[in-house]
Every structure is written in structure tokens, then in C-alpha cells.
Design brief:
Elements: H1 45-51, H2 95-102, E1 123-125, H3 132-144, E2 149-152, E3 157-162, H4 166-176, E4 184-187, H5 190-196, E5 197-198, H6 201-207, E6 214-219, E7 235-239, H7 244-250, E8 261-266, H8 278-285, E9 291-295, E10 307-311, E11 314-319, E12 329-330, E13 339-342, E14 350-354, E15 357-360, H9 370-386, E16 393-397, H10 403-415, E17 419-422
Parallel strand pairs: 2-9, 4-7, 6-10, 13-16, 16-17
Antiparallel strand pairs: 1-9, 2-3, 3-8, 4-8, 5-6, 6-7, 10-11, 12-15, 13-14, 14-15
Length: 429
């Protein structure tokens, strides 16, 4: 049993290899079937080591990835998952990356986001002529000077500052209009987490797994973090670096005495969805940031950080997004119609049911802001196309004044399908 699926392994006889004189990767054939779209995968240990190895050709490359890690959902425009169908399609691989891509013995064989320092993406600070190394160094200096900066990640932008600088944290609270709601912290490594928080072995596994979600952990009494990160709260949300760029924010050969803990909170103005392109970042948070670090790879669909609590010695999902969505959940009955279910008004998501599988979307946000409503509608239509579904009915809340209900009716009208309204509730067992 793997991921809820029964896997059968059978021995087969390969055809006579003598009749073949070459090997090549060809574009995938189009097949309409249940498709399992991979979520974004945190940087693996092998890629991490390459990024920090000054003898490797990917030394300090902020977009290093392989077949075991890197962006997936957030760069995918359509299936099948081929480079031409992703936001990497406009970046031509250099000869070395091309050789890796076609070499079946390579860890980067058929890795669609494959690139290196000599091809592909560029880092830059919006509105300046600072690129690559210069951009990273300037951002690191700004953070350690107590400034608030924007950082483009896999699924959107973060607002970032030094988690040990009380003035910076206080300023960030004013910017985010969050007088007391806790901020999430990205810590350099597990040693820092152990120094600042209580953490057990199972939490260790999840924290450092391939999803790398935010996990709520109990603070130690002697923590060096600012009290204002989580006022009057015994726990803090902690995550580890999940992209090569995050690794480089902490560790770069520039002689800057860098902090080991960074606040990484969603980059948006109050009520808006997470910013996912430069225009949104400029419109929403440019006035709050001294600098915004971006790159030229398009984020096709937003994906906030996932958040987990710990209950009864098991992880308890609070926000299912990056690293998890849209992995499906199996249900026993496959005869139901294809369904699009729209979430409630607050902390809204949606779910698509098809052939006994439920595909939960990444977290979108509160439907009280027109920007979130627009982002929500776009995400729904993208996932319908991506999963090649044909919803036969839309299900939404019963409340007559919810914006989520308005969106459900609009989508149903566009798809020419009925709407069913139900009373939703939350049950704690």
C-alpha cells in the first residue's frame, strides 16, 4: 500500500535490446485518465549539499532541483508534466543541463525544472539593476540592518525580517495589521530548532521531510527569539528552508553575520491573497518593503505554506497547501458524479471529486476581499483544467450572503451545471 493505492509488482521480459541503437526522451502522449499532480517538493539533502559545495557546478545556485525535489504544482500549466507544459518552457537548458536531462543515470534525468548557474532563471531586486549574487548580498544586508524585505518563493512572496530584532518585528506587525497573531519562523537548521523549541522525534521527521510544513512547537523559556513573534503564546510556528534560495539567505560567502531565524509570513496586504507575481508585489507591499527579491519564473498557481499542529502524538493539519495539495484522498465510492465543492467564507479552499478521489486545493484565503475572490475563481478554473475534470454539480454553503456562494453560482453558470447548497459545520472529535 503506497499513498492509499495498492501497488502490484510483476516481473516482465524486456524485448531484445540488440534491435535498438539509440535512446531518447519524447513528449508524453496525451491520455485522459485520473492524473496525480505532484505537489511542490522541498529541496532534498543531495541538492542541498551541491548548493553549498564550492567544487560543484551548482554551487550557490538558488534554483537547484532534481527528480526528487523542486517545484511541481506551482509551475504546471497543463498535463502531462513535461517541461513544455510548465513555466520553465521559456528557459533553454545549457549543454550540461541538457546532457543531465537525457541521461537516465543522472539524478536530473527528465527533471522538468532543471537548470544551473549558466542557464534558466535569474534572481533580481525589483526596480533595480541588482541581479544574482549582488541581489542576495544586498537582501542579507538589509535583513541584518533591521529592514523588512519581500522574498519570492515557490508558491508566492514572503515578507521577511530578522526574528531576533524587536524593532523589525514590531514594524512588521504594523505593516501586516496583526497586533497579536503569531508569525511563522524559518530557522536555519534543526539544531536551531532544538535550541529554541521543544521537539520530539516524530516532529523532527515531519519538519525535515519532503513537505517541510510549518509546525507549531512549544517555545523554550530561554528562547532568543523576540517575544513579539507570538505574544502571550507558548508555541511558535517553525519551518526549515525548503528551497535552495532559502538556504542561501542563511548561508552565503559574504562575511555577513547572519541571523539563524527569519520571520517568513505571507506577502500581502490585509485581506488579500498571497502575492504571486511582481505586479502584485509592487501594488500590495512595495510601500512596506525596502527591497523585494524576485525571479523570472512564473508562479502558475499560488500555494501558501502548510501548517500543522500536534495532537494526540500525531500531526494535525491546520492548513493543507504547499507540499500536500493537490495529492488526492481516496473514498470508497466511485460511482458519484464529478463534483466541485466550494469551501466556506473564511480560510477557504475547494475540492474536486472524481472517480473515487478527492483533490483538495491549496489554501486560498478569506473570501471577504475582492482580490481573494478573483484569485479563488482563477485557481478553481485552473485546477479543473489541470485535473481534466468535468464537474457535474457545484456544492457550496447555504448562507445567502457568502461571497463563496456567489463564486459558486458564477462558476456553475459558466460551466452550465447545477448548484447544491448545504449546511456546513465543524466537528471536533
Amino acid at each position: 500500500m503506497v499513498g492509499g493505492y495498492n501497488i502490484t509488482i510483476e516481473e516482465i521480459t524486456l524485448p531484445d535490446e540488440s534491435k535498438y541503437d539509440s535512446f531518447s526522451i519524447i513528449e508524453s502522449e496525451k491520455d485522459i485518465s485520473d492524473c496525480l499532480v505532484s505537489p511542490d517538493i522541498a529541496v532534498c539533502d543531495k541538492c542541498k549539499s551541491k548548493v553549498l559545495d564550492n567544487k560543484n557546478r551548482r554551487y550557490l545556485h538558488p534554483f537547484t532541483n532534481c527528480t526528487q525535489c523542486g517545484p511541481r504544482l506551482t509551475i504546471l500549466r497543463r498535463i502531462p508534466y513535461d517541461r513544455i507544459n510548465t513555466s520553465m518552457s521559456s528557459f533553454q537548458m545549457c549543454p550540461s543541463c541538457t546532457n543531465e536531462y537525457f541521461d537516465h543515470t543522472s539524478r536530473r534525468y527528465d527533471a522538468q525544472p532543471n537548470c544551473c548557474n549558466h542557464c534558466g532563471l535569474r534572481l533580481y531586486i525589483i526596480g533595480t539593476d541588482l541581479y544574482g549574487e549582488d541581489a542576495i548580498i544586498v537582501i542579507r544586508k538589509a535583513i541584518m540592518s533591521g529592514e523588512i524585505v519581500g522574498i519570492k518563493g515557490i508558491g508566492g512572496f514572503h515578507l521577511c525580517c530578522d526574528a531576533k530584532n524587536p524593532n523589525a518585528v514590531s514594524l512588521l506587525r504594523k505593516i501586516k495589521q496583526r497586533p497579536s497573531k503569531p508569525f511563522a519562523i524559518m530557522m536555519k537548521n534543526e539544531k536551531v530548532v532544538e535550541k529554541e523549541c521543544f521537539i520530539n522525534s516524530e516532529q523532527h521527521k515531519l519538519l525535515n521531510g519532503w513537505q517541510k510544513p510549518i509546525i507549531l512547537l512549544k517555545k523554550r523559556h530561554n528562547t532568543s527569539l523576540c517575544d513579539d513573534i507570538a505574544p502571550r503564546n507558548s508555541t511558535i510556528g517553525v519551518m526549515l528552508p525548503y528551497t535552495p534560495l532559502h538556504l542561501l539567505l542563511f548561508d552565503y560567502p559574504d562575511n555577513i553575520n547572519m541571523t539563524d531565524s527569519l520571520i517568513m509570513t505571507s506577502c500581502n496586504s490585509h485581506g488579500a491573497p498571497i502575492c504571486h507575481n511582481d505586479n502584485e508585489a509592487i501594488q500590495e507591499i512595495d510601500k512596506y518593503c525596502t527591497l523585494i527579491l524576485s525571479n523570472d519564473r512564473e508562479i502558475v498557481i499560488r500555494a501558501d505554506d502548510s501548517v500543522c499542529d500536534w495532537f494526540d502524538e500525531k500531526p494535525y493539519m491546520i492548513r493543507r497547501s504547499r507540499g500536500f495539495a493537490p495529492l488526492p484522498i481516496t473514498i470508497p465510492h466511485k460511482s458519484h458524479p464529478q463534483i466541485l465543492a466550494i469551501g466556506g467564507e473564511l480560510k477557504s479552499t475547494f475540492c474536486i471529486a472524481k472517480n473515487g478521489l478527492l483533490y483538495p486545493s491549496p489554501y486560498v484565503g478569506d473570501m471577504t476581499d475582492f482580490r481573494t475572490i478573483s484569485a479563488f475563481r482563477d485557481s478553481v478554473m485552473h485546477m479543473i483544467k489541470l485535473l481534466e475534470t468535468n464537474p457535474e454539480i457545484v456544492i457550496c454553503d447555504l448562507h445567502p450572503n457568502y461571497n463563496s456562494v456567489m463564486v459558486a453560482n458564477e462558476i456553475a453558470r459558466d460551466l452550465r451545471i447545477p448548484v447544491a447548497q448545504v449546511q456546513t459545520y465543524s466537528e471536533i472529535q
